[in-house]
Structures are given as C-alpha cells and as structure tokens.
Design a protein that fits this description.
The complex is a heterotrimer. Chain A is built from three helices and five strands; from the N terminus they run ββαβββαα. Chain A is of the alpha+beta class. Classes of the chains: A alpha+beta, B alpha+beta, C alpha+beta. Chains A and B meet through helix 2 of A and helix 2 of B.
Chain lengths: 138, 158, 1225
C-alpha cells in the first residue's frame, strides 16, 4: 500500500506522478525530487564499492517522519519511486520489490504503445489506472 | 510460425522503404537506407525496455554487449551471436555466421550487393537498444560472405 | 538510525538543557580550546572587528613544548557567541567549556576605555566558572603625539571611576612598552591583560600575543589535566550531564555499578582533557577503556560521548586537515555539487597512524558515530548533543567521500525532536543544505533551502524576514533547475526540471519579493513565471497569472533591464514573448513604385568566362541556407514595414502598446504601434520604421508593452524563427508624385507587371488623330531629382510604338534637377497610328474580290498573331490589332501576287465596286493600345550609389477607325512629272467626314461610305533611286528596295487629312506601306530616259493625239537622253504599232495596215550619261482606224526574258502613255 508513485526519465524530469491524495501531490513532488540525489549517488557508487548489489531495486532511499521512499532504476535509467506511509509496518521489502516489478512491467508495456513517444510524459489513461491499481495493493 | 511472419514482415518493410526511395530519387546510386535504420532504432529503443526488465543492472559496457550477443539476439533471431570481439576502447565486433535475414538468400555472392538492405534494420535495432541503455554508438554492418554478417559497434564518447 | 526506544531513558523535564545548538561543530573541535572573541563597545567598527577576528582565527593551532620536552599540538577554536548554559555540558564534553576570552574595543577617551574594561570584566564574571584567562585588545587614537603622555591623570580617573569590586589587588597593565605612548590607562580594578594598539598599526605582535595567551591557557589546562589524572579513580565523584542531576538524587552512589559508572565517566572525561591537551594516543586509550567500562553498566549517554571522543581523536589522526571555512560566505565560483575533499594522506604518516593503539580505522569512525547517535537518541534531553554529533559525523563522511553515509547522518538530524527557536530551525536547515551541497545533493540542498525559506516567514516566526526568505528561495533554484535567465530556460531542450514545483517556487518568489517591498522584482519574477512556464500552465492558470502580473506591474512596471540586488545578484530581464504569441514575422519590400532598382550600366564584356566555379559554389550555399538576408532593399528615410501575425492566448482582450521593431546595425527609427488583440484570434499588425542611415540593418525582433511589462522579444529567443533578418538599406532616394492631364483608365488589362503603376491615363483617338497629355511630376521628397528617364513599354512593335508615343527627353532634362517640392512637366504626344490601307484583308479576299468575308478572316488570323500571352489571345480586340499590324509585313511579302492583280488590270477590269457594296467589319472598328510610360528617376546619395526608382503611368489608348484606303492604283498624269494615285477611301466612322486629299481639293464622305479620289503625285525622282541604279550586283532585293522607296515616296507626298465635322476632330492618314506592282512602279518613278518625240517635225506633247489620213506619211523622230549618272549599254530603241481592241487584247499584227519606212529598231551600243541618241523613221498608215504607237527602249536581254524587269539591266522603258494615232479616211 503505497501513497505515491513516480516515474522519472533519464534526464530526471518527471514522466508520471501519482499519489493517493491529489492535494499532497506538490509536497510529494519535493520529496521525490530530492530523493533523486540518493538514487544518483547509489548508481554512481554502485560501480565502485557496492558492485555486488546489481539489483534494479535500490531499496529505501531515505525515510522521513511520515514516509519512506523507495527507489528502483531500470537498465535504461528510468527511475521508479514509491512512497510508503512509514506507519505501515506490515509491508515487507519483498512486497515493495514486486510492486516495482509490476510498475516496470506496465511501463515496458506502455513504451510499446505506439502512441507513446519515449521520454515524453505518460498520459495514457489505462497506464494511470494500472499504476493506481498496483500502488493501492489490490 | 511467428519467425516466418517476422521475416516476411521485415522483407516487406525493406521493399516498402526501397521502393519509396526509388520514387523519390531514381538516379541516386547509394541507396538511402536511413529510414530503415531509423525504424530499427525505434524498435530497438523500445524493445530493450522489455528485454532488460528482469536483468540485473549491467556492470559495464562489455556486460551490455554480452547481453546483446546472447539474450537480446536470441529474443529477436532465436540464436546467439557466434563471436564477440572488442579492442576495449569502444569498438565491438559482433559476428553472426548465419544471420537470419540472409540465410534465405543464396550462399555466396549472388545477392551481395543487396545485402545492405537486409542488415540496416538490425543495425538500427542495435543502435537504438544501446542508446536507451545510455551508450551512444555508430553501428555498421559488413557482409563478405552470405549469410555471415559482422556488426561493428563504435561507441561515441563525449 | 535512531534507537527505536527513543526517550525511554530520560524523563521529560523542564530542566534547562543546552538550548543553543552549535551546528558548526567539527569532530576536531573536541580537541580545541574554546575562546570567545567579543566585540565591545560601539566605537569599534564591525568591519574592523571582523578583520581582526579573521586574523585571530588563523591562529588555530599552536605548538607548545611541554615540561617533558614533548611538542604538543594545541588546537584552538574561536567563537563569537557562547551562551553560558553551554558551559553546563562542560563536564560531559570538556571542549564545550569556554576557556579563554578575547575582547576587542576601541576608545577615544578615558571614559570609553573604562567602559570597555568594565564590560570585559563583566564578561569574565559571566564565564567565570570555566574561564582560564582573558585578553583585552584595545585600539587607541591614531596620533598619540598630540597628547604628551601623562600617566598621572588617568590614574586618578581610573581610581575615581572604579566601581567594580575592589577586594582584588590592582594589577598593573604589563604592557610597559605600550604605556608611554598612551595617555590613557586601564582602570585599577581591571585585572585582565590589556593589549594596546593604534587602530592604524599593523599590530605585528598580535600573533605573538595570541601565542602567549594560548600558552597561558594551555598551562592552566595542563595543570588541570595533571590534577585530574592524579586523582584516585575510585574516589572521584560522579560526573553528570546537566539533565541528569535530578535522576541521580537518592541513588545509591556506592553500588558497584555506580562506582563503575563514576569510573567510566571520569575515564572519558580524562580522555577529553588529554585530547585537548594534545595527547592524542593517551586520550584514545582513556576513551577506549571508558567505552569498555560504560558499556558494562549500560550508561548509554556517556558511552555515546566516549564513542564520540574515540571518533574525534581518530579523525584527528586520519584527517588532520579538515578545516571549517574561515570565511563563511560561500565561494560562488565552486561548481555545483561541491568538490569532494581530497584526503591528502601521505603513506609514511599512514604507517605512524596505524601504530597508535586503540585508534579507529576510517570506516569504523562512522560506525562508532552511528552508535553514539543511537545512544544519544535514547535521551530526549540530549537532542542537541545528538544533532551536533550527526553534523560532526556527516562532516567526517564528507571528508571520507561517503556521500550516502553523510546523507544518512544528515537525514537523522531532521528526526531529532528539539524545541528550537525558529531561528535555530532555520540555521539547522541552512547547515543541512550546505552539507548536502558539499556532497553534491543539490536537490536535497534545495529542499532544505526552501524549508529554511518558509521558516523565515512562518507564522510562528516572531521576526519574519522576507529578505532572507527571498534569497534562500533564490539559492534553491539551481537544485530545481531554474535559471533566472529566461533564454537559458528555453534553450534547455529537454525539460529536466519539475514544472509544478518550479511554478510553485516562482510563485513563492513573487510573494517574497512583494513582501520585501521590491515591486520591481515581483513584476520581474511574475513575468519570468509567465514566460518560462507558459506551456506547463493550464489556461486558467495562464489567465490568473496574467491578471496577477497586471496588478503587480501596476505597482512597478516591468522593463527589459537587469535588476541588481543588494547582494550583488543580477536578475536578468524577462521578456514576455508568449503574450501575445507571434506566429509570423515578415519584412516587406517597399511598394513597387518605391522599390529601388539598380541603374543598369552597360554590360561590360567580361571575356569568354560566363560562369565561374565560384558562382556555382555560392549558388549552392545560398540554396541550402535559410533566407535570413532579404533579397530586396530598403531605402534610407523611407518608411519600411514588417508585418507580424499576433495571437492573444489569454481569454480577455489584450492591449499591446508601444510595439516597435528591435534593430541593430544602421540607425533605425521605429514607429510605435498600439494594438488591441481580441482573444485567440490571429491578428496582423504592421510595424513601421525609418532607417536613418544606409548600410546593413538587422531586424532582431520587436518590443511590446503589455500587462504592464515592457518586453524585448528577440527572434533568436523564440522558436520557429530565424535568429534575425538582415536587409540592405541604400542611401536616400527622392520620391515623385505623378499626375496626368487625362482621365484615369477604368481598368487595366493585359500587362503583367503593372505593379509599379502609380496612375493611369486613357483616351480615345480616331486613327490619324493626335493629342497631347501633360504629365506633371512633383518632387515630394527632400532630395532633388537629378536623373529622370522616360521609356515606354508595350507589346507593340517598336516602330509603331514610337509613332504612337512621343515625348521630348531634352525638354525634360532641361527641367532637371527637380528640387524638393519642385514641379516638372512632360508632354506626351499620342498619335493614333494605324494602317490606313486595307491591310486587314488577306490577299485571297482581294483576288476573289469578296470583301464581305473579311470579318471571318480577321478572326481566323487571331491564332496567326505573334501573341505570347494567353490573355491577349482571349481578347478579340487585341488579336485584331496584332494580326493587322503583323499582317502588314506579310502583305508586303505577298505583294507581287497581289499587285499583279490590282495593277495589271485597269480599274475597270477589276469589276464593279459600288460604294454601297462596301461592307465594313464593325468589330474591327476600334482597337485598344496599352502602354506603360516608365519613369526612372533618382537623385542624391541614392543616385551616386547607383539606384533609382521606377514609376509607371498606365496609358490606355483606344484607337477608333477613321478612314481606310480599300484599294488603289496609279495612272499616268497629264504631265510626265506627275501621276495620279487613285484611292478608294472608306469612311469607317458613322460621322460625316470631310476629306482633304490635296491642299486644294476636298470632299465629303458620308458615314460608312466610300469614294474614289485621284491624287496627283509627283513622280519619284531618279535622284532617290540612283543608289539602286548604281548598284549593279544586287539581285532580287533591289526590287523590294525599289518598291519601298517608291512606296515611301508616295507616303511622303500624299497628305490625306480628314475632319469629322460633328466632332471637330481632325487627323491625317498615311499611305505608309502602300505596295506597288512593277508596272505601277514604272509610272510612279521618273524614267531614266528623257523622251522627245516629234512627228513631222512637231514635238509631241503628252497625251496628245495624232490625227492623220490614211496614206499620209508621218515622219517620226525619237530622241532619248540618258539622265542617269552612268552609261547605259546595249540599248535597243524600237517603235511599234498596235491596235487596242479594248477587250484586253492587243493586235500587233498590223502588216497590212501600217508600213514603217526605215528601221523600226535601232541598237545603241552605249549611251553615255547626259548624252542623247536619236532615231528617225517614217510611218505610213494604209487603212484608217485607231492605232497606238508604242515606243520603247530596252536593254538587250530584256526582250528575251519575260521576267519582271529590274533595275537598268534587262528592262525596257516605254514612252508613256502610248501615243494614239487616229487615222482618218
């Protein structure tokens, strides 16, 4: 059960953003944006020291008072970010991981949508629906 | 079955592009296959997203090339690249001894002149996939003896 | 990171805890002696203080040799503020104690000096519990020499003013050398050491003084350390953190656990002291054992402190060079993402480091810090210690290049729940952002900056500071990928920023600048927001922001100039190019008649190379390049135009005023325009301007003033446009106004290039009529017209065109130069030239004699015309014209055929031609001639540059038929010097026409009727023909030439004038182009031979008849004279008789009727010019009747060939007319 999900392009500009409560979107955007620093750092250091973790899933990027932010970066440098309510302790790492997998999967499907131009913001309605489906954990 | 369909579709795309060119400029000696290459580029750019979905993160460039030779090639051509060589300075040569789009033609030199038409799309696919993986490169193909084909990848460093 | 068992070990308490966090701490500060540097009094300028503070701060390590001869490295930390409560934590961590005090003050008078001393003393009292020593640096007046040093009076003063406690012994200031030069002395109760300087002094011994001071501090510290270390560890009292005091009340202090606790805490405390005293390895030892001891008694707080000490000591070994930025202002030149520190550790040092026992390896440092922080986090009251530890740990991680680790320490800071003042919260965020910046987390840094900014103005903040808020938001821009330069925002092709965040930030910035009271900034940022975020805004947002901008700009208008803030930051101009949107930008050429044209110089022969390879090259290049250089010209001082297509994207009407063109290059005066744009409707607008110089002009864009903002919209900053357009401006040219005396034409037709036509004139003329048209030229410029050329353009043949349009160039030139406002007139003579001969009728019609079919024939000849323009083909009027004029030539070529028809037969034989039978084709009645009178004029600098303008007058001339010669013939006249030209003349008008065909003769012709008139014409004199006769060798052409000469001769002599009585118009008709048969030619021209014929001795007169009786013998004598200028050879002179049966047959067989006595022929071998020859014979008529005597003289070959006779050779001349002889019975 996530409260927010974002897909960020190679150039770190937002391609897709959604959260459960639309009123909080801007606040989440700030948080997700600043988590990119961690992602970049993780990807950079990934080559040097922590090369054993070659997983696309980056784990928790950082935690805030109320939220925890998780990251996942595809091989094509598309960043997926999920924000979890930190009071929700029942969620296990594996569940988050599978949430990312699903997200990546529908993203890959969306790329094959002939109407989608790579690196453009995603506007497909069915994609939006699928993402909401995934993050609400049903 | 779907292999055959893919091959037919590909050869029709080749014909379509070549004929389109003929209408535009008849006397141009060097065939303009850039359209074909671009079609390949778009396909490669998109398909790599799907093919690398379950892959671990690539260690380095060579890792990516290996992926192209094995999983990637198998996914598209149902076989692997037969030989990969590199100078470790950004040049990679991928050799396919029986390149799918050439195997159905004669073995030898009969259609050698027309071979570029049947490799341009694949060059584009390679370039597009690598571009999406963050590697900008030039891809050229070399056919000396059908149906063998060598793809030269030259990475552009900026 | 934080312990999940937060706060379990500390009760919530209202005890005073350390309320002033020191975010600037480094782990190295654990080893440093803390010295407060204080500015006292208001006389010392803050700037001077800061200068000295910096200088003092540089003395941050001092090497001191201790009693054992060991060199100690003593670190010093200087601070400007130290809340006294922080001293309370001095037992917990000794580096928190304030050990030294340096105060700085300036005085001009003893009173001020006393005040400084008093404050210094009171500070000493304030920190008395920890202070070891103090110094007071005093700056005196500059020129002490004015005042003779006087020691006594200040002594008195000081004693009198001393109000401080007097139970301390008076300490004399030890600076004996400074004393003599100062007439002031410190008060007697002042017991600190004073250091006197003059303000202007270089204060060279300041560092020495500091050294001495630090030495003194050290020795006190050293003594305390020794004292502590000698204490029996079992007997020490429990050291407590400030909040712990309550917790331990009533606890059994003698329990084993507690003993251990006391022991552990003291060991840790010793570690602190050793560390400060520069004994690193010893301190490590103490810390290590303290850790062991404290761990065993679960004394988490102090365990944390021991870990921290361990880390601090280790870090000091590993990274001795970590330094705080002495000057706190950020180095702007550093690239974003901070340079990561390089650990400059040399290998030999590394080896020595490894030798130190108990020292932590680098990666352990962070781990221990982490543990320490976790332990701290268990105590709510240790929040500040935890915060500071987090910062210290982060700084170590930065030094170690472990960004992620640093980030996690920094992240921890946010979780620590502290009751902080707003100011402290802000500082915390600012410090966080600085550190994030250092590890390259610019987004995170920006995030913290924004939080700090909002804190500055939060409702909880008692002192909102919009200035700081503003500057923090501004600082956060790089992290949010906002550049203040709108052009940079647009040039970033891929949108990297997060638009919704950028929009919010910019809105906040607008609010902040508004609240700062800087309305110019508010306007600027709002403009920026609207401009750069346009495509990310919904249309309602666009509208809302536009309205906001309007209200902001009503406070202060936006102008396209950079704004410089007090901090030195430059805010580049923001130009609104989206409101309105420009979708088209086109330079217009001048109006055709004003367009400058190159005055053609005669093309010089450039040799055989027509094309050079270079030209090919340039051609190719120009074809590939987009057209930024205009291919037309503008003229200095002329109003030039650029058309814009504007769209107002806002849902309300938009007024855009002061729109001008932005140019560079030559001086250009742009005329401002104001336009009101309805919503979402493309509107075209023309911007005008006048170049004031000649040369290259660049049009770079346009300026607007809308929504209260002035903008310079440059094309290079706008998509879909070339960066600029350039155009050549040529020097000033005159302009001219043109008027004609004739009415304007109703319509123009046929000409394609009538674009430069400025006026028109139309008139109808009957063929042969002429009129004048006065063209008035007014120079309405400020430049004299020095050149004026007139030419006519039409589709007519050149010769015909010259007949119709005539003017006097000389007359015109005599009126030049035409000064400004001057007027010149040009008279254009118009003549309705036409072929008056029945030329429209083809030869076929003539031969068949059916005139009625001529109508159809002329239509048919349409396609035969030389028309090149399809429009002309469609115009029956024109084609009639064309065919008729060109038909003339064709008729000439065919003339031999045609003339033979009309000439050989006499008029009576051609059949009956009643005037009534003359059916004239009505449609051919009028033709329209169109011509353009082109006036090319120039003057002034433009002329010298080789340019002119060209204006045209469109002239429509309707040519109405007047009379037509439908047929003609020649007859010998009564005198041999003349002949009769007999003309059938048709009146083509419907009016009654008076025809004057000789000077004396005239007749009236009814409308649409014809009549026949004989016109006596002098024969063509031989002088006109000499050339032909002289030229022996010419062939067939001679006949045509002869034909032409004679035809011209007739045309010149025959003067047909007509007058339409009712209209009172008159004109003349010409017979130009009349064709003649060879036989006609003989009549027309004078014979080269002069004949003299005498019968029976009497000279025969022309037309005279001879009457005789049958049987009479007539003696005929013929004499000929050669009037040519060359001899004639092989002449045969002969005489012959025949009878004319008047039915076309002549009877030459007259042997039974006439007898010639003597020779009928005589051969003359040569007849010299002007010489005469004669021949005589007798004739006897046997039977009565009418005879004709035919006398002829021919060249020898003429008789044998039956060819048309040409020139002098092979020709025969007759005595005309043949002489009638009436023989009576």
């Amino acid at each position: 059960m996530a409260v927010c999900a974002a897909i960020i392009g190679k150039d770190n500009s937002p391609k897709y953003f959604t959260c459960l409560n639309p009123d909080e979107e801007l606040g989440f955007q700030y948080k997700v944006l600043s988590s990119l620093d961690v992602i970049e750092e993780k990807l950079n250091s990934g080559n040097k020291s922590v090369s054993d973790t070659r997983e696309l899933y980056l784990g928790m990027l950082y935690s805030l008072e109320k939220h925890k932010i998780y990251g996942y970066v595809s091989n094509t440098k598309i960043k997926f970010i999920i924000v979890i309510d930190s009071t929700n302790t029942s969620l296990r790492d594996n569940e988050i991981r599978s949430m990312f997998r699903k997200l990546h999967s529908i993203y890959a499907d969306n790329v094959c949508n002939p109407f989608y131009i790579p690196d453009e913001p995603i506007t497909s309605k069915s994609f939006d629906k699928s993402v909401k489906h995934i993050i609400s954990g049903i | 079955m779907d292999d055959t369909l893919f091959e037919f579709l590909h050869s029709e795309v080749v014909n379509y592009v070549v004929e389109g060119n003929n209408i535009l400029n008849k006397d141009n000696k060097d065939e303009d296959l850039s359209n074909l290459e671009y079609i390949g580029f778009s396909v490669g750019y998109k398909i790599i997203e799907r093919l690398t979905r379950e892959m671990a993160r690539f260690k380095d460039e060579l890792d990516m090339m290996k992926f192209v030779c094995t999983d990637f090639w198998s996914a598209i051509y149902k076989k692997q690249i037969d030989n990969l060589r590199t100078n470790h300075q950004g040049v990679y040569v991928l050799q396919d001894n029986g390149f799918k789009f050439l195997t159905k033609m004669s073995n030898g030199k009969q259609y050698l002149e027309l071979a570029p038409r049947y490799v341009a799309f694949t060059c584009g696919i390679i370039r597009g996939s690598l571009a999406n993986l963050g590697v900008n490169c030039l891809v050229t193909a070399e056919v000396q003896n059908m149906p063998a084909c060598k793809f030269h990848i030259q990475v552009q460093r900026t | 990171m934080r312990s999940s068992v937060s706060y379990i070990l500390s009760t919530t308490t209202s005890e005073p805890n350390m309320s002033h966090p020191d975010y600037e701490q480094f782990s190295h500060d654990h080893a440093a002696l803390l010295i407060l540097v204080k500015q006292i009094g208001s006389c010392l300028k803050t700037k001077t203080f800061n200068k000295f503070y910096e200088r003092i701060s540089k003395v941050n390590t001092v090497k001191i040799t201790d009693s054992t001869g060991q060199v100690r490295n003593i670190l010093i930390r200087y601070i400007k503020e130290h809340p006294v409560e922080n001293n309370d934590w001095g037992d917990f961590q000794t580096h928190r104690r304030l050990l030294g005090l340096i105060s700085l003050g300036r005085y001009d008078s003893q009173q001020e000096l006393n005040e400084i001393c008093r404050v210094h003393e009171s500070l000493k009292v304030k920190y008395t519990s920890t202070l070891f020593d103090s110094r007071c640096i005093l700056f005196g007046v500059n020129d002490e020499r004015e005042y003779p040093s006087d020691n006594s009076s200040p002594e008195e003063e000081s004693s009198s003013s001393s109000k401080l406690s007097v139970d301390e012994p008076v300490s004399e200031p030890k600076e004996s050398d400074s004393k003599p030069r100062d007439k002031f002395t410190t008060p007697t109760n002042f017991k600190a050491r004073a250091i006197f300087y003059n303000e202007a002094d270089p204060c060279t011994d300041l560092e020495n003084q500091l050294n001495e001071f630090i030495n003194s501090l050290f020795w006190v510290l050293e003594s305390k350390r020794l004292e502590r270390s000698r204490e029996k560890i079992e007997r020490v009292s429990l050291l407590l953190a400030p909040f712990e005091k309550k917790d331990f009340v009533g606890l059994d202090m003698d329990s084993r656990n507690n003993k251990k606790r006391c022991n552990g805490r003291m060991t840790k405390h010793l570690g602190d002291l050793y560390l400060q005293a520069g004994l690193l390895s010893e301190s490590l030892g103490y810390y290590h054992s303290a850790v062991e001891t404290l761990k065993s008694v679960n004394d988490w707080l102090w365990l944390g402190a021991a870990y921290e000490g361990l880390c601090a000591a280790s870090a000091l070994v590993w990274y001795p060079n970590i330094q705080r930025n002495v000057s706190l202002h950020r180095n702007a030149s550093l690239p974003e993402g901070s340079p990561k520190r390089s650990n400059s550790i040399s290998t030999p040092m590394e080896n020595t480091k490894r030798d130190i026992i108990n020292m932590l390896p680098p990666d352990e440092i962070s781990k221990r810090y982490r543990e320490a922080i976790i332990h701290y986090s268990k105590y709510q009251n240790a929040g500040i210690i935890e915060t500071e530890a987090s910062f210290k740990a982060a700084r170590i991680s930065v030094e170690q290049n472990h960004s992620l680790q640093a980030a996690s320490f920094l992240q921890n800071v946010v979780f620590i729940n502290l009751t902080l003042s707003e100011q402290e919260k802000i500082q915390r965020f600012e410090t966080l952002s600085d550190l994030y910046m250092e590890i390259g987390f610019i987004r995170k840094a920006a995030f913290c900056q924004r939080l700090a900014a909002t804190r500055h103005v939060s409702p909880q903040n008692p002192t909102p500071n919009w200035n700081k808020c503003y500057s923090l938001i501004l600082q956060s821009f790089p992290g949010h990928k906002i550049s203040l330069d709108p052009t940079e925002m647009s040039t970033i092709h891929s949108p990297c920023g997060w638009p919704s965040l950028q929009i919010q930030l910019l809105q906040e910035l607008v609010v902040a600048s508004k609240r700062m009271g800087h309305s110019a900034l508010a306007t600027r940022h709002m403009t920026f927001l609207l401009q750069t975020m346009w495509q990310h805004l919904s249309s309602s947002e666009q509208k809302e922001f536009a309205i906001q901008l309007q209200s902001l700009s009503s406070q202060c208008e936006g102008a396209p100039v950079p704004l410089v803030l007090d901090t030195g930051i430059v805010i580049p101009p923001a130009n609104l190019s989206n409101v309105p949107i420009c979708s088209g930008f086109n330079l217009r050429s001048l109006q055709p008649h004003l367009q400058p044209r190159k005055i053609e110089t005669f093309k010089r022969d450039l040799g055989p190379f027509l094309f050079t390879p270079i030209k090919f090259g340039t051609l190719e290049r120009s074809s590939s390049k987009p057209q930024s250089k205009m291919d037309f010209l503008w003229v200095e001082n002329d109003v030039c135009e650029v058309t814009l297509k504007l769209v107002n994207p806002l849902p309300f009407e938009l007024k855009v005023s002061n729109m001008r063109l932005l140019t560079s290059g030559v001086v250009f005066e742009s005329i401002p325009e104001t336009v009101v744009l309805p919503s979402d409707t493309p509107t075209s607008l023309t911007l005008n301007g006048t170049p004031k110089e000649s040369g290259e002009l660049e049009i770079q864009g346009y300026s607007t003033h809308t929504l209260g903002v002035k903008s310079n919209c440059r094309l290079r900053c706008m998509p879909n446009f070339l960066p600029c357009y350039s155009i050549e401006v040529i020097p000033v040219l005159p302009t001219m106004e043109i008027k004609t005396s004739l009415p304007q034409s109703a319509t123009f037709s046929s000409f394609q290039n009538f674009e430069n036509v400025v006026t028109s004139a139309s008139i109808s003329l009957y063929n042969g009529e002429s009129t004048e048209c006065t063209i008035t030229l007014t120079n309405n410029s400020h430049v004299p017209i020095e050149m004026l050329e007139v030419s006519i353009q039409s589709v007519l043949e050149l010769s015909l065109q010259d007949q119709i349009f005539k003017w006097s160039q000389e007359n015109l030139e005599s009126q030049l130069p035409l000064m400004p406002n001057g007027t010149a007139s040009l008279t254009l003579y118009l003549y309705s030239a036409a072929n008056f001969l029945a030329a429209g009728y083809g030869p076929n019609e003539l031969s068949s004699g059916v005139f009625g079919s001529s109508h159809g024939s002329s239509l048919m000849s349409m396609s035969a015309g030389p028309s090149s323009l399809p429009s002309r083909l469609n115009s029956p009027i024109y084609s009639a014209m064309g065919s008729s004029f060109h038909g003339t030539r064709r008729n000439e070529l065919n003339s031999s055929f045609r003339s033979s028809n009309s000439g050989q037969s006499s008029m009576t034989t051609t059949g009956y031609r009643s005037p009534g039978a003359l059916i004239l084709p009505q449609h051919a009645a009028s033709t329209v001639v169109e011509g353009q009178l082109q006036l090319r004029y120039s003057g002034g600098a433009g002329l010298r540059a080789g340019y002119c303008r060209s204006s045209s007058i469109f002239i429509t001339l309707e040519m109405l038929p007047s009379l037509q010669v439908t047929n003609w013939d020649v007859l010998p006249a009564e005198t041999s010097s003349q002949f009769y030209l007999v003309l059938d003349i048709a009146n083509m008008t419907s009016q009654e026409m008076e025809l004057y065909y000789t000077p004396t003769k005239h007749m009236l012709i009814e409308g649409h009727e014809s009549c026949r008139v004989p016109v006596p014409v002098n024969r063509c004199p031989l002088s006109k023909l000499t050339k032909l006769y002289m030229d022996q060798n010419s062939g067939m052409n001679n006949r045509l030439d002869l034909d032409k000469i004679c035809s011209d001769h007739i045309a010149n002599l025959v003067d047909l004038r007509w007058q339409l009585l009712s209209l009172n118009t008159r004109g003349k008709a010409t017979l130009k182009g009349i064709t003649l048969t060879p036989n006609m030619l003989d009549i027309v021209r004078m014979s080269p031979l002069n004949w003299e014929v005498s019968v029976n001795g009497d000279f025969l007169k022309p037309q005279e008849e001879i009457n005789c009786d049958a049987g009479d013998c007539l003696s005929v004598r013929i004499s000929i004279c050669n009037s040519l200028e060359k001899p004639l050879q092989h002449l045969i002179l002969s005489i012959q008789f025949y009878q004319d049966h008047r039915n076309g047959t002549h009877n030459y067989r007259l042997e039974t009727r006439v007898v010639i006595i003597g020779c009928a022929k005589k051969i003359l071998p040569v007849l010299e010019p002007q010489s005469k020859a004669w021949h005589a014979c007798n004739v006897l008529f046997l039977t009565p009747g009418q005879y004709k005597m035919d006398i002829q003289c021919s060249t020898s070959d003429a008789l044998s060939t039956n060819q048309p006779i040409l020139g002098p050779c092979g020709h025969s001349w007759r005595y005309i007319p043949a002489v009638d002889v009436n023989v009576h019975i």
